[in-house]
Amino acid sequence: MTQMLKYAILSLSLLTIISTSAVSPALAEMADYFSSAEIFLVQLVVVLHAFAIVPSLLAAIWLAERFSRKKVLLAGLLTFTVSGILGGAVSNIYVLLALRLILGVSLGMVVPFSTSLIADFFDEGERQKMLGLSTSLNMIGGMFALILSGYLTLVSWRLPFLIYLCGLPVFFLILRALPDDHGKSQKATSASGKFPTHVYKVAFIMLLFSILFFVITPTMALFLKNNGLGDSRMAGFAIAFTTLFGAMSGFVLPRTLKITGRFFMPVMLFIISAGFLFLYFSTFIGMVFIGASLIGFSNRSIYPIFFYKATQGVPSEYSIRATAIVSATIYLGQFLAPIFQKCVGTLFQNPSTRFLYLFVAITTIVSAIFVLLKILFQKKAL
Predict the structure, then answer these.
(1) For 157, phi and psi rounded to 5 degrees?
(2) Could you say which of 3.30.470.30, 1.20.1250.20, 3.30.1330.60, 1.20.1090.10 is the CATH number of the domain covering 189-382?
(3) Which run of H or of E encompasses 185?
(4) For residues 23 and 30, what is the distance between their CA atoms, to the nearest angstrom?
(5) Are 108 and 60 within 8 A, CB to CB?
(6) Mind listing the pLDDT tens digit for each residue in 342-373?
(7) Contacts of residue 226, Cβ cutoff 8 Å, sequence gap at least 6
């Protein structure tokens, strides 16, 4: 295992959040430029790629069963870079949206490899460490893109699209370091054994978990404004706290796992619940920052474990399918979070964001207790 191969695999993690973070600070300037277009169309620039990612993730399974992973990955990286950069060169909102759809398709060809390659190249001991680092780099990439995009937007809304040039060094790292013959998946008909069904169980739990976590992003700004806790700038800082502590969690994941042992999952769920309770009881912005930090740290501590469990005991020819399925549920959860929020408000006749945070806190507490009792009675780690 060469160091360059490690860097190449980890570099893939930088790209996933960048797809959104690179252009979101420029939305106001885009709205001014495309003043004749509906604001809804401009907002789609940030989220439209997510609609294309889910089917593309599933298509990546088919491609990986017929071509070497290196070829599929290089095609995805090249398309990601080109479609991302071209977005800043167009003057038609519909052409821009079409490019964002292509970006989503290409990202779907990249996302599952950031985890499946770790599952293939590293044994169980080092795999957890690499998954933690992958999560941290994912969050760091998002933070870097947000900060850089904010400064570039001061010059022109077109400049943040140059951030997608980061796909080029990743492309050349994969081209040079990843063996062409490794990871070439066999067709399902010739694969050794059936596809492990536990992957679907992990994916379903990941879906539920993602729906709960992603209620923060679309609600934070309104929550602060409606409760007199801060403006959109403070909302940006609060969300940045989830990103910052999420990045930190990856670096200390092996130590966190060692300290918590078999109680890792219930401990993290209790911390998430505490974070949402801080939000619910918040009377000043400091409580919001504390809550966001707790949620970000525990949430991003759990994510790598889902991928670890999904790929555990999975034959290499099925690893891409396993990670693609789990990855798809994250983006599906992101899409379903606003619907979940509306359902909770309607069901309990309380549409306030503060009540939503309380509901999520109670849900995670109940989940933590259930998992804890399961561990105590079965006497084995999750």
Answers:
(1) -70, -20
(2) 1.20.1250.20
(3) none
(4) 10
(5) yes
(6) 889 889 989 888 999 999 999 999 999 999 99
(7) 352, 353
